[in-house]
Amino acid sequence: MWIKICANTSLEDAQLAVDAGANAVGFVFAESPRRVTRTQVRAIAARLPKNIEKYGVFVHPSFDEVADTVMDCGLTGVQLHTTSDPALPLRLREHFGDMPAPKRLGILRVLHYTTDFDAQVGELQPDHAVDAVLIDSRTAKAVGGTGVAFDWRAAQSSFLRSAPHLRLIVAGGLRPENVADAVYTLQPWGVDVASGVEAFPGKKDPAKVRAFVNAVRQAAAEIEKVKLPAEA
Ligand SMILES: O=C(O)c1ccccc1N[C@@H]1O[C@H](COP(=O)(O)O)[C@@H](O)[C@H]1O
């Protein structure tokens, strides 16, 4: 299972995620207590292993903002929250190329789990520009980094009904104590966490980061064990 530890603000925290066994680290370029600058991320990303995926998180970004930041910071992926331009993923895919990993720019489109989830999935452009859909919660104040979980049980049937063809990444209010339950309930392709592994906003807690990754790996292994040979 793919694991991203998001909203890192220092090399120490990003390296902690790498050492704990995460597949990807993320950096928030949007309004947030965890916001970082391009200068910071360029310096951090250059010191991380080549094989760790490095995602930039953007809210309502322009094409130029995303494309310039990818090049400037050496990002390998982007996470697009609430964009008013539905064609943005396709424009980015055309710009960066439709090659296979590891050269491919990862594009994650964020949807919020609300009662109109099915409609949101229906509005996704069927252009194959998006590699995975990240399902998050939102509050009146924030579109990400909320620390609030959505109703996984209710979401499960929506996912099966409207998004069985999509790679799903679950986010929103995940913590070391509840992530296994989310994995068992939703059986996603990946998980993502920001505030749930922090000591305080903008600073990761090493014990929480390790416990989170271990809990996901263990839950994913349990799921594999009960799969029929044909499904595995
Ligand atoms: O982390 C933030 O502050 C943030 C701000 C604006 C957009 C996205 C943000 N983070 C993303 O939010 C989700 C879940 O966060 P949490 O685990 O509930 O705190 C995650 O995908 C982060 O990438």
Task: Indicate the topology.
Layout: E1 2-5, H1 11-20, E2 24-28, H2 38-46, E3 53-59, H3 63-73, E4 77-81, H4 88-96, E5 106-112, H5 117-123, E6 132-136, H6 152-162, E7 168-170, H7 179-186, E8 190-193, E9 198-200, E10 203-204, H8 206-226
Parallel strand pairs: 1-2, 1-8, 2-3, 3-4, 4-5, 5-6, 6-7, 7-8
Antiparallel strand pairs: 9-10
The structure holds ligand LGQLAAA5.
CATH third-tier fold name: TIM Barrel
Radius of gyration: 17 Å
How large is the share of residues in beta strands?
15-25%
Largest beta sheet: what is the strand line-up? Answer: 1-2-3-4-5-6-7-8
The total number of structural domains is 1
Round the mean pLDDT to the nearest integer and report it: 92
End-to-end separation: 13 Å
CATH secondary-structure class: Alpha Beta
User: Helical element count?
Assistant: 8
- Largest sheet: number of strands, sense, barrel closure: 8 strands, parallel, barrel
- List low-confidence stretches: none
State the helicity in percent bands.
Answer: 25-40%
Descriptive report:
The chain has 232 residues and is of the alpha/beta class. The chain has one domain (2-231): Aldolase class I (TIM Barrel, Alpha-Beta Barrel). The chain is built from eight helices and ten strands. An eight-stranded parallel beta barrel has the order 1-2-3-4-5-6-7-8, surrounded by six helices. α7 runs parallel beside α8. The longest helix is centred in the last third of the chain and has 21 residues, at 206-226. The chain is globular, with a radius of gyration of 17 Å. The mean pLDDT is 92. Bound molecules: ligand LGQLAAA5. Residues 6-7, 26, 28, 30, 32, 34, 57, 59, 79, 81, 134, 136, 143-147, 171-174, 192-196 line the site of ligand LGQLAAA5.
